[in-house]
Amino acid sequence: MNDEERIALLLDYENLAIGARESGYEGFDLSAVNSALADRGRVVVRRAYGDWNLFDNDRRMLVAG
Q1: 3-state secondary structure of 35
Q2: 33-50, pLDDT tens digit by residue?
Q3: What is the pLDDT confidence band of residue 6, given thresholds at 50, 70 and 90?
Q4: Of all residues in the chain, what percent are helix, strand and coil, respectively (each to 5)?
Q5: Which helix H or strand E contains 50, and what residues bound it?
Q6: In 36, 37, 41, 56, which residue has its Cα 20 to 30 A from 7's Cα atom?
Q7: Contact 56, 19 (CB under 8 A)
Q8: Which run of H or E residues covers position 45?
Q9: Chain centroid to CA 31: how far?
């Protein structure tokens, strides 16, 4: 049996992006989150939810990396 931790990352992307913009961030990088999760186990599910009509450039960033 494999004892490796399996992790799911689910993002409420719309609220995350709106909060970042209201705080003055033009954009944000999720690579630190990905690195921290990779240290803890294998991410087997990644989902980001939001109204992608409002975040087209962000959607491209998420699927590229």
Answers
A1: helix
A2: 888 988 999 988 888 888
A3: very high
A4: 45, 25, 30
A5: none
A6: 56
A7: no
A8: strand 42-49
A9: 8
Are 58 and 20 in contact, with CB atoms under 8 Å apart? no
**Residue 33 CA: distances (Å) to CA of 40, 52, 61:** 11, 21, 15
Q: Which residues contact 20 (CB under 8 A, 6 or more apart)?
A: 27, 28
Compute φ and ψ for 42, nearest 5 degrees: -105, 125
Query: In Å, how far are 22, 64, 65 from 34, measured between CA atoms?
Result: 23, 14, 10
Closest by alpha carbon to 45, among 5, 9, 2? 9
The model's pTM is 0.65
Block residue for tokens 């409420």: 12
Instruction: Give CA–CA dist 34/48, Å, rounded.
Output: 13
Q: Are 55 and 18 in contact (CB under 8 A)?
A: no
